[in-house]
User: What shape does this take?
Amino acid sequence: EEKLQTPAKIYYKFEGNNTSGSHKLNSAIAQAYYAKNQGLKGVTTETGAGQWGTALSMACSYLGLDCQVYMVKVSYEQKPFRREVMRTYGAAVTPSPSDTTSVGRAILKEHPGTTGSLGCAISEAVEAASQPGYRYVLGSVLNQVLLHQSIIGLEAKAALDKYNIVPDIIIGCAGGGSNLGGLISPFMGEKLRGERDYQFIAVEPASCPSFTRGKFAYDFCDTGKVCPLAKMYTLGSNFIPSANHAGGLRYHGMSPVLSELYHEGLMEARAVEQTKVFEAAEQF
Assistant: This one.
């Protein structure tokens, strides 16, 4: 506040104390638990920067499940520590797109030397899930994930209520939507019920701006077009972003729930360039 010379009071919801380093554990433990109860041998998934892959690897290690992770190739190369933490928890980690799946080979043929995308990694993970005893699980975008992540907003609201603080503006980063959707859920509920009014701002990377540059349409959730269609703000399932450092924000689409809220004008969105983000992060 002092540095920015702002009259605003700024409150930060910190998720880094979760053992896997992010909010993703909220959904990973739930999904691994139900997979185990279903009698599955293991699960497959994709990861961008590695938070979701780390969280799921950890949850699977608790419950004795096999975990196979397809990690966006540029993140696999940029973030060796994330990669090795997953392996420490017992997960198999493959850079995507790879030659281990037919969809991976097709993507490599069409885009030789590509740095990959979450859409590519999802397609590979879905194909890998066709082996007996396995299912594919996702850590963002889908409704059940936003439901799990609503704990973020409930915790934030409980803390603010304790000190009689009512926020005016609620800001969150948006990649696929789990973090932002989880944070705003109880506050958005109040807004929708007409109990209180808040300003919601989604911040997304300028290199993958699905809200601010995408179309609201039915689209495939993955590059290989093997997943069901979802109505969302999308840059197109064949969109492969530049090799930016914000691996988790590299998704071509946005959560259908958040897309509808944005479409209805209940939320704003802003796209920010990576260099400005790094400057802000250094200051923070």
Summary: The CA atoms of residues 38 and 133 lie 10 Å apart.
